[in-house]
Protein backbone atom coordinates (compact mmCIF):
# COMPACT_ATOMS: atom_id res chain seq x y z
CA UNK A 1 0.00 0.00 0.00
CA UNK A 2 1.34 3.43 -0.93
CA UNK A 3 0.54 6.37 1.33
CA UNK A 4 -1.38 9.31 -0.15
CA UNK A 5 0.45 12.45 -1.22
CA UNK A 6 1.00 15.19 1.29
CA UNK A 7 0.29 18.85 0.71
CA UNK A 8 2.38 20.73 -1.83
CA UNK A 9 4.36 23.84 -1.06
CA UNK A 10 3.62 27.04 -2.87
CA UNK A 11 5.96 29.61 -4.40
CA UNK A 12 6.40 31.36 -1.07
CA UNK A 13 8.62 28.51 0.24
CA UNK A 14 11.57 29.29 -2.01
CA UNK A 15 14.52 29.10 0.42
CA UNK A 16 17.20 30.28 -2.07
CA UNK A 17 19.52 31.16 0.81
CA UNK A 18 19.81 27.46 1.65
CA UNK A 19 21.66 26.73 -1.58
CA UNK A 20 18.92 24.35 -2.63
CA UNK A 21 17.04 23.80 -5.86
CA UNK A 22 15.54 26.89 -7.40
CA UNK A 23 11.86 27.09 -8.31
CA UNK A 24 10.83 25.90 -11.76
CA UNK A 25 9.66 28.30 -14.50
CA UNK A 26 6.28 28.63 -12.76
CA UNK A 27 7.95 29.47 -9.43
CA UNK A 28 6.92 26.13 -7.95
CA UNK A 29 8.92 24.42 -5.22
CA UNK A 30 8.26 21.38 -3.08
CA UNK A 31 9.66 19.93 0.11
CA UNK A 32 10.96 16.40 0.67
CA UNK A 33 7.92 15.75 2.88
CA UNK A 34 5.71 16.39 -0.17
CA UNK A 35 7.32 13.39 -1.88
CA UNK A 36 7.26 10.74 0.85
CA UNK A 37 6.07 7.36 -0.38
CA UNK A 38 5.66 4.22 1.75
CA UNK A 39 5.12 0.73 0.38
CA UNK A 40 4.32 -2.17 2.71
CA UNK A 41 4.08 -5.75 1.48
CA UNK A 42 4.10 -9.22 3.02
CA UNK A 43 6.62 -11.50 1.32
CA UNK A 44 5.35 -14.77 -0.08
CA UNK A 45 6.92 -17.89 -1.53
CA UNK A 46 6.67 -16.45 -5.05
CA UNK A 47 9.29 -13.79 -4.11
CA UNK A 48 11.72 -16.26 -2.49
CA UNK A 49 14.46 -18.66 -3.45
CA UNK A 50 14.64 -22.31 -2.34
CA UNK A 51 16.26 -21.26 0.96
CA UNK A 52 13.20 -19.20 1.90
CA UNK A 53 14.98 -15.86 1.47
CA UNK A 54 13.41 -13.15 -0.68
CA UNK A 55 15.34 -12.51 -3.90
CA UNK A 56 17.47 -9.36 -3.80
CA UNK A 57 16.21 -8.58 -7.30
CA UNK A 58 12.63 -8.55 -6.03
CA UNK A 59 13.59 -6.05 -3.32
CA UNK A 60 15.36 -3.95 -5.97
CA UNK A 61 12.14 -3.90 -8.02
CA UNK A 62 10.17 -2.74 -4.97
CA UNK A 63 12.78 0.00 -4.38
CA UNK A 64 12.29 1.16 -7.96
CA UNK A 65 8.49 1.12 -7.54
CA UNK A 66 8.43 3.21 -4.36
CA UNK A 67 11.10 5.59 -5.71
CA UNK A 68 9.02 6.14 -8.85
CA UNK A 69 6.02 7.15 -6.74
CA UNK A 70 8.10 9.67 -4.74
CA UNK A 71 9.67 11.05 -7.93
CA UNK A 72 6.30 11.30 -9.67
CA UNK A 73 4.95 13.25 -6.71
CA UNK A 74 7.80 15.70 -7.10
CA UNK A 75 7.80 15.93 -10.88
CA UNK A 76 4.04 15.89 -11.29
CA UNK A 77 4.37 13.54 -14.24
CA UNK A 78 6.10 10.53 -15.74
CA UNK A 79 9.59 9.53 -14.56
CA UNK A 80 12.17 6.91 -15.46
CA UNK A 81 15.07 5.43 -13.51
CA UNK A 82 18.47 6.63 -14.74
CA UNK A 83 20.81 5.10 -12.12
CA UNK A 84 20.78 3.08 -8.94
CA UNK A 85 23.70 3.47 -6.57
CA UNK A 86 25.05 0.26 -5.07
CA UNK A 87 22.82 -1.65 -2.68
CA UNK A 88 24.32 -3.61 0.18
CA UNK A 89 21.97 -6.08 1.87
CA UNK A 90 22.69 -6.18 5.60
CA UNK A 91 20.13 -8.80 6.61
CA UNK A 92 17.95 -11.34 4.80
CA UNK A 93 14.21 -11.08 4.26
CA UNK A 94 12.24 -14.30 4.80
CA UNK A 95 8.93 -15.60 3.53
CA UNK A 96 6.21 -14.17 5.76
CA UNK A 97 8.15 -11.03 6.69
CA UNK A 98 6.47 -7.68 6.18
CA UNK A 99 8.71 -5.37 4.18
CA UNK A 100 8.32 -1.61 4.43
CA UNK A 101 10.02 0.69 1.95
CA UNK A 102 10.17 4.45 2.52
CA UNK A 103 11.18 6.79 -0.28
CA UNK A 104 11.83 10.54 -0.30
CA UNK A 105 13.27 12.89 -2.89
CA UNK A 106 16.56 14.12 -1.39
CA UNK A 107 17.58 16.61 -4.07
CA UNK A 108 16.28 17.89 -7.40
CA UNK A 109 18.10 19.43 -10.34
CA UNK A 110 16.81 20.67 -13.70
CA UNK A 111 15.26 17.40 -14.94
CA UNK A 112 16.57 14.78 -12.53
CA UNK A 113 16.30 14.03 -8.84
CA UNK A 114 17.80 11.68 -6.28
CA UNK A 115 15.38 9.50 -4.34
CA UNK A 116 16.53 7.79 -1.15
CA UNK A 117 14.88 4.48 -0.23
CA UNK A 118 15.15 2.64 3.09
CA UNK A 119 14.01 -0.98 3.32
CA UNK A 120 13.06 -2.64 6.61
CA UNK A 121 11.69 -6.12 7.29
CA UNK A 122 9.59 -7.24 10.24
CA UNK A 123 8.90 -10.73 11.49
CA UNK A 124 5.28 -10.10 12.49
CA UNK A 125 5.21 -13.16 14.80
CA UNK A 126 7.97 -11.76 17.01
CA UNK A 127 7.74 -8.07 16.20
CA UNK A 128 11.47 -8.02 15.48
CA UNK A 129 12.33 -5.57 12.69
CA UNK A 130 15.59 -4.76 10.98
CA UNK A 131 17.19 -2.58 8.34
CA UNK A 132 17.60 -4.61 5.14
CA UNK A 133 19.23 -2.10 2.79
CA UNK A 134 19.19 1.47 1.53
CA UNK A 135 19.42 2.73 -2.03
CA UNK A 136 19.71 5.99 -3.91
CA UNK A 137 18.05 6.17 -7.30
CA UNK A 138 18.38 8.94 -9.85
CA UNK A 139 15.06 9.52 -11.59
CA UNK A 140 14.50 11.70 -14.66
CA UNK A 141 11.21 13.44 -15.42
CA UNK A 142 9.82 12.99 -18.92
CA UNK A 143 7.49 15.24 -20.86
CA UNK A 144 4.72 14.12 -23.20
CA UNK A 145 7.32 13.93 -26.00
CA UNK A 146 9.40 11.43 -24.01
CA UNK A 147 12.27 13.89 -23.52
CA UNK A 148 13.61 15.09 -20.15
CA UNK A 149 11.33 17.74 -18.64
CA UNK A 150 11.96 20.51 -16.11
CA UNK A 151 10.87 19.79 -12.54
CA UNK A 152 10.01 21.97 -9.53
CA UNK A 153 12.66 23.06 -7.07
CA UNK A 154 13.10 21.21 -3.78
CA UNK A 155 13.54 23.00 -0.45
CA UNK A 156 14.60 20.84 2.51
CA UNK A 157 12.99 21.99 5.77
CA UNK A 158 14.51 19.99 8.62
CA UNK A 159 18.17 19.50 9.50
CA UNK A 160 17.88 15.84 8.44
CA UNK A 161 16.47 16.89 5.05
CA UNK A 162 19.30 19.43 4.62
CA UNK A 163 21.87 16.74 5.49
CA UNK A 164 20.33 14.33 2.97
CA UNK A 165 20.39 17.12 0.38
CA UNK A 166 24.10 17.84 0.99
CA UNK A 167 24.93 14.12 0.77
CA UNK A 168 22.92 13.84 -2.47
CA UNK A 169 25.02 16.63 -3.98
CA UNK A 170 28.21 14.72 -3.11
CA UNK A 171 26.84 11.50 -4.65
CA UNK A 172 25.81 13.39 -7.80
CA UNK A 173 29.31 14.84 -8.19
CA UNK A 174 30.77 11.33 -7.81
CA UNK A 175 28.34 9.92 -10.41
CA UNK A 176 29.17 12.72 -12.87
CA UNK A 177 32.92 12.30 -12.32
CA UNK A 178 32.68 8.54 -12.88
CA UNK A 179 30.60 9.05 -16.01
CA UNK A 180 33.20 11.48 -17.40
CA UNK A 181 36.03 9.08 -16.58
CA UNK A 182 34.23 6.19 -18.29
CA UNK A 183 33.69 8.31 -21.42
CA UNK A 184 37.38 9.29 -21.50
CA UNK A 185 38.43 5.65 -21.05
CA UNK A 186 36.11 4.49 -23.83
CA UNK A 187 37.37 7.22 -26.16
CA UNK A 188 40.99 6.28 -25.44
CA UNK A 189 40.25 2.59 -26.03
CA UNK A 190 38.66 3.40 -29.39
CA UNK A 191 41.92 4.93 -30.69
Would you give an account of this structure?
This protein has 191 residues and is an alpha+beta fold. The protein has a single domain (22-190), classed as Roll (Thiol Ester Dehydrase, Chain A), CATH 3.10.129.10. Helices cover 27% and strands 28% of the residues. The longest helix is centred in the C-terminal third of the chain and has 32 residues, at 159-190. It is globular, with a radius of gyration of 18 Å. Mean pLDDT is 88; it is low at 1-20.
Layout of secondary structure:
Blueprint: E1 29-30, E2 37-42, H1 56-75, E3 79-84, E4 98-108, E5 112-123, E6 128-141, E7 153-154, H2 159-190
Parallel strand pairs: 1-7
Antiparallel strand pairs: 2-4, 3-6, 4-5, 5-6
CATH uppermost class = Alpha Beta
Instruction: Give me the CATH superfamily.
Output: Hotdog Thioesterase
Radius of gyration equals: 18 Å
How many angstroms does the end-to-end distance come to? 52 Å
The CATH topology corresponds to Thiol Ester Dehydrase, Chain A
Could you estimate the helical fraction of the residues in percent?
25-40%
- Give the rounded overall mean pLDDT: 88
Low-confidence stretches: 1-20
How would you describe the shape? globular
As for the number of domains, it is 1
Counting DSSP E segments of at least 2 residues, the number of strands comes to: 7
Largest sheet: 5 strands, antiparallel
Strand order of the largest sheet: 2-4-5-6-3
The share of residues in extended strands comes to 25-35%
Order of helices and strands: EEHEEEEEH
Count of separate DSSP helical elements: 2
Provide the structure class: alpha+beta
Amino acid sequence: MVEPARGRSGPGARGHHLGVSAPDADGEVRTPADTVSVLTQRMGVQEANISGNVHGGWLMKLCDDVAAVAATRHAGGRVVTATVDGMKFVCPVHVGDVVTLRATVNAAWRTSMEVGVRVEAEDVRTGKAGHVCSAFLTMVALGDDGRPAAIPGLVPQSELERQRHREALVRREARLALSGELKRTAAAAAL
